[in-house]
Amino acid sequence: MINFAVIGTNWITEKFVNATRVEKQLSLRAVYSRTLQSAQLFGDKFSVTTCYDSLALLAQDVNVEAVYIASPNSLHFEQSMQMLKAGKHVICEKPLASNAQQVELLFQTAIENNVILFEAYMTAHLPNFKQIQDNLHKLGPLRKAHIHYCQYSSRYPAYLAGNNPNTFNPSFSNGSIMDIGYYCIAFSVALFGRPLSIQASAFLLDSGVDGCGTAILNYGTFSITIDHSKVSDSQLSNEIQGEQGSLHIEHVAQCEKVTLFQPQQDKNVDVSIKRNDNSMVYEAQFFAQQILDKKIDDVAMQRAKITSAVITEIRALTGVVFPADSI
What confidence score (pLDDT) does residue 36 get? Predict the structure, then answer.
């Protein structure tokens, strides 16, 4: 059993802790929050009494082997670095850091300290993502893909009212491409690797972050058009097109349903596989296995690095700059 702590006490943290209870490879040992009361309230849900409001004390806890980080984006780099240098394995929510340079430094630090660093990108570990990979060859030569994630943010009305929620605040390394747009980029990179070239445009809010945007990833013989938005909704499915068929994917992050269409047979085939209701189970298992194997998975590491590099380039093309970029 691998004892771990959590940094952050929001809904995603609770979902991750519940995910670890399926295979029971990971055991929650400690909770950190900015206030001790918040940490204790979260700990009470899981009968955990070791709580911290000091990251330094958490880093010194010899009973904690690993840490799950679910703090605001701008804190990922600093907190991951602190835990890695303390000899803790780290699974950090996406995006792993604010920019590509920080991601490279984190993996370098993890390797130097002989610990695991893993970006908590759940999609690539879902059973239906494997179905997408296994059915791509049935499409023939690939030509186009349309990947969408557009969801009107519940925080947008507050922003329009003159408030400054984290969601649209550059100080927190946030905005559309760093949030739901991340899933579109990571999905594309997980399937096809680094694009040959990138085009991008975005609607920038007065705060300086993107409210929505479009990117075109060029892979030579085919291209991927990405649409992401936190200021509008879309019900479109995702589609990968080849000369002999297409794959349709419902929800790019969850891969809820995958349908194969082959014109020659004039029928749609549902190739989906039933998965656990908690979609974070698979990434939790993958993280634990890396710890047991005492080796960072190279595919996961390269995916994290390339995804960050692509998003960093898209931000440069669209003019989104974060205070964290100067660190």
Answer: 96
DSSP one-letter code for 46: T
Instruction: Reply yes or no on whether the pLDDT at 327 is more than 80.
Output: no
Tokens 């030509």, located at residue: 143
What's the CA dihedral at 22, 27, 28, 30 to 10 degrees? -170
Q: Which CATH class is domain 2-119+281-294?
A: alpha beta
Separation of CA 228 from chain center? 15
Location of structure tokens 């990947």: 147
Sequence ranges of the domains in the chain: 2-119+281-294, 124-278+309-326
To the nearest 10°, the Cα dihedral for 172, 175, 179, 183?
-140
Answer for the pair 168, 159: CB distance below 8 angstroms, yes or no.
yes
pLDDT at 266 over 80: no
- Cα dihedral sign for 48, 52, 55, 59? negative
Helices (H), 197-319: 281-293, 298-318
pLDDT value at residue 174: 97
Residue 82 has pLDDT above 80, yes or no: yes
Q: What is the band of 173 on the pLDDT scale with cuts at 50, 70, 90? A: very high
Q: What is the pLDDT of residue 146?
A: 98
124-278+309-326, CATH topology level: Dihydrodipicolinate Reductase; domain 2 (3.30.360)
* Residue 284 pLDDT greater than 80, yes or no: yes
Q: Which residues pair with 218 in a beta bridge?
A: 197, 223
Q: Which strands form 50-52's sheet, in the order they lie side by side?
A: 50-52, 26-32, 2-7, 66-69, 89-93, 117-120
Sheet of 210-218: strand order equals 197-204, 210-218, 223-229, 142-150, 238-242, 245-250, 257-262, 267-270
How large a percentage of the chain has pLDDT more than 70? Answer: 100
- How much is the pLDDT for 265? 79
